[in-house]
Amino acid sequence: MPNKKLLILGGTGEAAQLAQQAVDVFGNKLEVVISYAGVTRHQPDLPCEIRVGGFGGPSGLIDYLKENNFTHLIDATHPFAEQISMHAYVAAQDLEIPFLILWRDEWRAQIGDRWLDVSDMEEAARQVAAFGVKTFLTIGVKELSAFDGIADVAMVVRLVNEPAQKLPLANYECVIARPPFSVEAERELIREKQIRLLVSKNSGGEATRAKLEAARLEGVPVIMVRRPPQEPVDYVTHPREAIQWLNMHGV
Hints:
- The protein has seven helices and twelve strands.
- Helix 1 (13-26) links the parallel strand 1 (4-9) and strand 2 (30-36).
- The radius of gyration is 20 Å and the shape is elongated.
- The two termini are 14 Å apart.
- The chain is an alpha/beta fold.
- Helix 1 packs across helix 7 and helix 5 packs across helix 6.
- It folds into two domains: 4-105 and 229-248, NAD(P)-binding Rossmann-like Domain (Rossmann fold); 115-225, Rossmann fold (3-Layer(aba) Sandwich).
């Protein structure tokens, strides 16, 4: 039986890559468990234990880590998953176990981009109201309520699953699709839906970058929501660096 046990908090493609690489590199030396919140109802097929569901706050995560004898913790959730990242930080501090954040590089504006950086979703909503043009929301479902009340702006909302109930928006249509997306497909969507403004979180990564290239080519401005501040711990931007970190921390 392995004497080291890793919990990966998943939700990104990088998390799945890390789980696969950890099993490949460490084999029987390391037991790997990856946990998903279950929001998208889709988990990849991986050669390790897959857990789905929440923990019940930082105390629940602490109990889970302690009861299951985890020795290492890596947060590879979405860069905007602030709550679970904070809980992971608190749990790792409480249990004094090695903790790493796998945080992919953020996107940076290129020549020809027309980006307006904003600090949060509320500011993004104010800018959408000010622009007053048909808007493409690519921010997931959780923060759509920030745009409630903007009745005179038509919105196109992209989600990975059909919403279970009516969205908190006055004037919208849904597009259901799962990344990755191609630049040409994104350009076609912009033209077909007559989109004149794009709202995005600065999530980074390759799976959804195409929308930004398409916006640049189609002359569509982008309201880009900045990332929240990260916890003051070790962090890397690539799964292979996380493997190196595990090597350096006793695996």
